[in-house]
Design a protein that fits this description.
globular
Length: about 170
Amino acid sequence: MELKRSSPIKPELGRPGFQAALLAWYDRERRDFPWRAKPGEAADPYRVWLSEVMLQQTTTKAVIPYFLNFTQRWPDVAALAAANRDDVMAAWAGLGYYARARNMHACAKAVAERHGGRFPSDEDALRALPGVGVYTAAAIAAIAFDDPATVVDGNVERVISRLFAVETPLP
């Protein structure tokens, strides 16, 4: 695949200017999703985690009804941990990648048993949970706990590579 060469976009912005521009863009373009906290509200780690698991390899359009169903049936991690695995799997049916559902249920049990029903805020502790990898741990830490974790997915890689005219193909 041949990459098009381009100049960095607005290099004069610098880090503070880039951050301000990115946040202003988000304020204008933000989409409302049932898992996002409203402005001024604290993010719920359970809802952040649940959405991150559901959104792996799945569109937001497909996830929304499943997310709403799960949060209605199991409003917190303790309720999900106490749920029958077959019920969880049945509720997941149609979303695909069923290992996510099995890991999600195991993770809920681990949070309930090892962490008193509260998600840990530390990335290392989050990564020790079943089914939680580097990206998901960083997303939970950053979104739910306001930790300066680096959350990088393909979309972030694409924006950064275009912004700074990165020519080396990213992994």
